[in-house]
Amino acid sequence: MSAGAAAKGSIRRRLFLQLAAIAALLSVLLFLVMRAVAASAAEDTQDGILAASATSIADALRSEEGSITLDLPYSALSMLGTINEDRVFYRVVVNGETLTGYDDLPPPEDAPTLSRNTFSTFEYRGDEVRMVSVARVVSTGGAPSNVQISVAQTRLGLQAISQRISAIATAAGIGFFVVATALSLWAAQSALSPLERMTASVTRRGPGDLRPFETETPAELVPFVAALNSFIARLRASLQRSEDLIAEAAHRVRTPLATVRAKAEVTHRKLNKPEHRQTMREMIRAIDESSRSAGQLLDHAMVTFRSDSLSEEVVDLSEMVQDTCDRLSPAAGLKDVSVLARVPDLPVTMKGDWVLLQSALQNIVDNAIKYSPEDTTVEVALSAGETIRLAVTDAGRGFGGADVEALKGRFARGRNVDDIVGSGLGLTIADEVARAHGGRLEIAANRNGGGACVTLVFPLS
Amino acid sequence: MRHACLSLVLSLWAAVALAFEIEADLTYPAEVETGVLTILSTADREAFEPILLAFQADNPGVTIRYTIASTAEAMKAVADEGARFDLVISSAMDLQTKLANDGFAATYRSAATDALPDWARWRNQLFAFTQEPVVLIVSDDAFPDGEVPATRNALIEVLRDQPERFRGKIGTYDVRESGFGYLLATQDARASENSWRLLEIMGRLDTRLYCCSGDMLRDIRSGDLLLAYNVLGSYAAAQQAEAGGFRIVEMEDFSNIMLRTVMILNGAENREESAAMVDFLARLGGRPDLVRASGLPAIDDAALRDNVALRPIRLGPGLLVFLDRLKRRTFLRNWEASITQE
Amino acid sequence: MRFLLIEDNASLAGAVVERLQMDGHAVDHADTLDAARACIAVADYDLILLDIMLPDGDGRSFLEAHRQAEKQTPVIVTTARSEVSDRVGLLDLGADDYITKPFDFSELEARCRAVLRRRGGAAVNSVTVADAVLDSAAGELRIGGEAQTLRNRELRLLEVFFAAPGQVFSKSYLMDRMFSFSDEVNENAIEVYVGRIRRRLEGAQVRIETVRGLGYRLVADR
């Protein structure tokens, strides 16, 4: 069976992609925020240490013999070496004159005040440096002197930290993305699971199961389920109509035919003149022909109809063969034709539609009986090897070299059968049933002399 | 064999080209020259030649120019005169640190430098390749009964108890003259208040001041000195092996460990050879023959972990503090006040 | 045999009744299930012919009730519906056989015979003429204890003669009894079959006698 509708897009994929895109956006945001926060924290740390260093230098300033001197504390610079290996520069300026330190360290653009330290970032001696400047007033011989202490440090350590933080932020972002994507996948899956459950429950149903769906469904699916149920109801009604129509048609056609035939037989009995009797006989044959054709047409309609939704019950072929042979034996007996069933000791079963299989076999056997001369045997042999074979062999006239494949077509009959009632649909029905079950119909000459061998071949289930 | 091929040439060119004062300028030409390496160093030829030759044996195409200068001159050459060298090797850790801090050093990283302990490198620019304890030299005549003081406190006691015996018989660096002496004195002062007390008592006993370890050892051997304080252990060990007559005492309260460091200058023209030499020096511990021949103890982290009294002088901005001109002035004033008792 | 025909189509029923009577059967006709139940209450039937589409109900329910009441009378269902779809249910409900309309009366008779044989019905007995015993149930002809298995058409031909020894049957009558309308045969075929049963009867005290211009009859020697 074909899938019918071609897939265009996927809700799950769209849902997943949208969620994943959101996750990606959030991941990038997380990365940026983490990096910004951490970088500013690292910067604050550096600023803090720089300020502490400058303050300790400022605290070591003292006035001596009318001038300002400085006993640079060891810790002022060594503390800057504790957290990283950055280069350190300092400069102490008293009233615009360098007291000590690096003469060329530029003064801050934003001059510090007593209450406010200033920070600046600039390029110095080949590297970017961060500088803190602290202002102090020291009294020298009664006159106040303005002292400006600047301590600068390169930012390589900071860059290393920020690289490390970036790496961590990247890892966190990727980790978040992966987890969020996995969750998106799960969410998409779980959002669609009611749909899948429904699909499964539709698929699980047998072909004849046309009850409406009464399972609990999410609110979003209620209209869909309602539409589906309404469709099922229409389908059920339509199927019922078709079946009824076939049955009704059969009834309508056959009942009057039966009446006519019975009356014809009665009349035939009452007639004495041979030519009248012959006429009546021909009438009866014509009735038989039309009733048989009608029967096969209706059978064929039924086969076509049921093949569309093949039921998958387990069919005991051995029993079916026996049953069909028993059923057809009385009619065969009228012609002194015997019907012989040959089934293996072990039951042979396959999955399929009992009604169709029976119809196929019955049509083949019926054909065989029809073409069998008296005092012959129609043999129905069932065997199961690599395939299941149901072979019907007769000792009739065979198919007279006709194209056997063409015989499977509708209304095709052998070239040598003009004298026998038949519509030519029997083999068509058998062929269609075989194909509906994944098998085929084989038509061959009977190996033992004349006659035909028609075989239904099915794969082992 | 290689020795036979080597010729030592005093380069006149170098002498005129450089304004700073040099002590020697040696060239070790390669047989077939594929590269050159110029080194400005404070280490003696005797100590360093085995290392240079071994390096050249590994890198036969490299001609080495080895220029020896004092620590102060080496600093001046690089910082002020822009002298063109590939490597600077110096025992003046403070000056080396300042050169690196002020941006004269190139950054270099290799498996060999990564293998050094953290305290033996700074910024991947300054690499220590020797650890040389600073010791007290005691003449065999100083303590006939064998009771040798092993801490600064014990030494102070001894000097207090027997002032006359040691008067004029103690030697130490004149920190005004010797950059290395200044480094040791400042590290002493930073480490312990005892060092000022020791300095004062040494001052009272008319301590004699020297420019270098070699002179102090000479006077110890001649009997002019009984004690020499803050002598570089590696020199002492080399001389003791030759002549004897004194004992080398590592102080048990603490002993400074001087780290001899190498850096690649920013403007180094022979980067490849420089890198090879830095790696070679960083792996000096793997060549006991060279350690023996040069008398320079290689970096050995394990030895320091075993003895907590051994304190390597820490590389880093802390060393810049004592180079501050005001700090130096103050320190020297205090030092003079203590040692000269004026 | 006594039949009960349950069939609502009066025209068809009339023809069937007349046709069965021609073969010497007694037939009661019921056109509704109620009527059928009334008939069963007062008479015993050898066989019931049941149409499944009736005005006052489905033949299936009758069949079900019939089987639940443990009635032994065999039922052959006549159906005008498609064979394949109805078959399973009918046999499951306890029909002995079914036949699709329109039916050939000789086939109906064969099916009745088969059903009765399966059920061992009392209606089929062996018929004895002189020293020949015709056992329809076994399909055998026994002469003086020696049994011969008969072919179907031979049996039917012998049955005609054994049912009325001495009566003359025309060739055309015998043809009607022996062949269905789908068999393309002429009256010469009767001579072949008469020849065969004469050979079967050799050595017996009965024989088939030709009555010139009229047909054949069975005569006993004593």
UniProtKB/TrEMBL annotation, chain B:
The keyword Plastid does not apply. Residues 1-19 form the signal peptide. It comes from the Bacteria. SUPFAM superfamilies: Periplasmic binding protein-like II. Transmembrane segments: none annotated. It holds the Pfam family SBP_bac_11. Keywords: Signal. GO terms for cellular component: outer membrane-bounded periplasmic space. This is Extracellular solute-binding protein.
UniProtKB/TrEMBL annotation, chain C:
Keywords: DNA-binding, Phosphoprotein, Transcription, Transcription regulation. Residues 124-220 bind DNA. The modification 4-aspartylphosphate is found at D51. GO terms for biological process: regulation of DNA-templated transcription. Residues 124-220 form the OmpR/PhoB-type domain. Residues 2-116 form the Response regulatory domain. PROSITE patterns: OMPR_PHOB, RESPONSE_REGULATORY. One of its GO terms (cellular component) is protein-DNA complex. GO terms for molecular function: phosphorelay response regulator activity; transcription cis-regulatory region binding. Gene3D superfamilies: 3.40.50.2300, 6.10.250.690, Winged helix-like DNA-binding domain superfamily/Winged helix DNA-binding domain (1.10.10.10). InterPro entries: CheY-like_superfamily (IPR011006), OmpR/PhoB-type_DNA-bd (IPR001867), Sig_transdc_resp-reg_receiver (IPR001789), WalR-like (IPR039420), WH-like_DNA-bd_sf (IPR036388). It holds the Pfam family Trans_reg_C. It comes from the Bacteria. This is Response regulator. It comes from Kangsaoukella pontilimi.
